[in-house]
Design brief:
The chain has two domains: 142 residues, Regulatory protein AraC (Jelly Rolls); 101 residues, Arc Repressor Mutant, subunit A, CATH 1.10.10.60. α1 crosses α3, α2 packs antiparallel against α3 and α8 crosses α9. The protein is an alpha+beta fold. About 2% of the residues have low confidence. The protein contains ten helices and nine strands. The longest helix has 19 residues.
């Protein structure tokens, strides 16, 4: 695959009642949406598809797409990932085109959340080589997806279960004791295992998921800070703003006006 220059431009985890209409015309950015929870409809290039857990959608740069839940107050839990491909003499985009030739959707199951979470974690690293490794991690996934199908899920069983629990609890209270009890393992052992596998303590990682969701909602909607803070389990908008600025480096309002 030396002839492929693939770059993950942006990726994250989010919870949203809808995905506003948009495309990436003129940018060269392709996009995946990988849904873990929620039911509704996904429109891509004027065609409507059913959203259910474990479905992944592929949108080319010129294809406008949006999504909406069945229930007015319902929410999706999903990963989004934007990427570019250049020098594709090995036929990666052709392979993806064949996989998604008649439909923009494929059902790959929920089990690949650890792969997307690993890519997301690498993308936000302060180390340039770690960030670059996200490209290769995603490239391997794409090659399998374009070829023989989605790769087999990887990861430690307890960590995978913890990630699933965190994703499902993005709008609900969740503490370390509860996670360990739900997993049925010793709390200290769980913390060591999670940090060894993922690189961060569990609760710091869970905060990162919530802040990543907040970033996506700030970029793509006009909800008030109070609503976002309440929906994502912060005490109030001041607590949310403090945590956001501490970990993102700018206030929520500043990020909304000039996202990085």
């Amino acid at each position: 695959m030396q002839n492929i220059d693939m770059h993950v431009y942006d990726t994250g985890f989010s919870s949203s009642g809808s995905i506003t209409p948009h495309d990436h015309r003129g940018t060269g950015l392709h996009e995946f949406h990988y849904f873990l929870e929620g039911e509704g409809s996904f429109w891509n290039a004027g065609i409507s598809y059913v959203v259910k857990p474990g479905t992944i959608f592929f949108s080319r740069p010129e294809e406008a797409h949006r999504a909406r839940t069945v229930e007015p107050l319902g929410k999706f839990l999903f990963y989004y990932l934007l990427f570019t491909v250049e020098g594709d003499s090995d036929g990666l985009l052709e392979g993806l085109g064949n996989r998604f030739s008649l439909r923009s959707a494929a059902v790959i199951g929920r089990g690949h959340a650890p792969t997307f979470e690993d890519i997301r974690r690498r993308c936000v690293s302060r180390e340039a080589l770690v960030r670059r490794s996200a490209d290769y991690r995603f490239l391997a996934f794409l090659c399998d997806l374009a070829g023989k199908g989605a790769p087999a899920p990887q990861g430690v069983k307890y960590v995978e279960e913890a990630l699933t629990l965190m994703q499902a609890s993005i709008h609900k209270p969740l503490d370390l004791d509860t996670m360990a009890d739900r997993l049925g393992i010793d709390k200290s052992y769980f913390v060591r295992l999670f940090k060894q596998t993922v690189g961060l303590p569990p609760m710091r990682y869970f905060l990162g998921l919530r802040l990543d969701t907040a970033k996506h909602r700030l970029r793509n909607g006009d909800e008030s800070l109070r609503i976002i803070a309440h929906d994502l389990g912060f005490y109030d908008e001041f607590h949310f703003s403090h945590q956001f600025k501490t970990h993102v480096g700018q206030s929520p309002q500043s990020f909304r006006n000039n996202p990085v």
